[in-house]
Amino acid sequence: MTVPITDGRKLRAMKNRKAILDAAREIFLEKGFVNNSMLEISQRAGVGYGTIYTHFRGKDDILRHLIDEIMEDLEKLVTPFVPSGRDQIKEKHEKDLRHILNVALKNRPILKVAFQAYGHSELIQNYWDELFGRYLKIAENYLREAQNMGLIRPEYDISIVSSCIVFTIKEFFWNVVLGREIDFDKVCSNVPAIFMHGLYRKD
Questions:
Q1: Fold for domain 8-56?
Q2: 27: number of CA atoms within 13 Å, CB side?
Q3: Are 162 and 139 in contact (CB under 8 A)?
Q4: Could you write out the DSSP letters of every residue in 91-151?
Q5: What is residue 49's DSSP assignment?
Q6: Which residues contact 69 (CB under 8 A, 6 or more apart)?
Q7: pTM higher than the cut 0.85
Q8: Sign of CA dihedral 178, 176, 170, 26
């Protein structure tokens, strides 16, 4: 059961924070990341210039929180999974990859702003690097477990394999964000198949 917040100051702070995030989203989508300021965001939100800094360190910090809301959708994939066979693994890979691409498609406008911000904000650079680093570690742990179960060849270096998989997915993620033409069905079937069965035909 959710306990309602009755403290006036907390309610006002929550309202201001939401107004700032909503205003920033609107401005980012209108002008991109570079061509705006904290003053413009505060004016659009209807809060004082000083108030905005009680909630966020700068506009890149605001953008980071907006991205966080999107990335929560990917957290659904970060659940314990114990592979029991190749078919189950392939099915999960295809389902997860499609979910990732759909998140990119659904949130394309604000993620394009985040892509732009990567080259202008150290905070955003660190955010993405840490985020993909975390997913890389998750993939590595999962693949190592599969290798221990005998589902992956023992001679493969799992750190290299996991990097190949995560960076391949990352590339398709940004291609969707940037509006490049992607056949979801082909990507979601081909990428897992290549990693599961290899590229070359067996004689």
A1: Arc Repressor Mutant, subunit A (1.10.10)
A2: 23
A3: yes
A4: HHHHHHHHHHHHHHHHTHHHHHHHHHHTTT-HHHHHHHHHHHHHHHHHHHHHHHHHHHTTS
A5: H
A6: none
A7: yes
A8: positive
Fold (CATH) for 68-197: Tetracycline Repressor; domain 2 (1.10.357)
**Domain-wise residue ranges, the chain:** 8-56, 68-197
**Calpha distance 11→14 (Å, rounded):** 5
Residue 134's alpha-carbon distances to 141, 163, 190, in angstroms, are 11, 12, 24
Tens-digit pLDDT profile for residues 73-132 = 887 776 666 667 777 888 888 999 999 999 999 999 999 999 999 999 999 999 999 999
Instruction: Please give the backbone phi and psi of residue 160, each rounded to the nearest 5 degrees, phi first.
Output: -75, -45
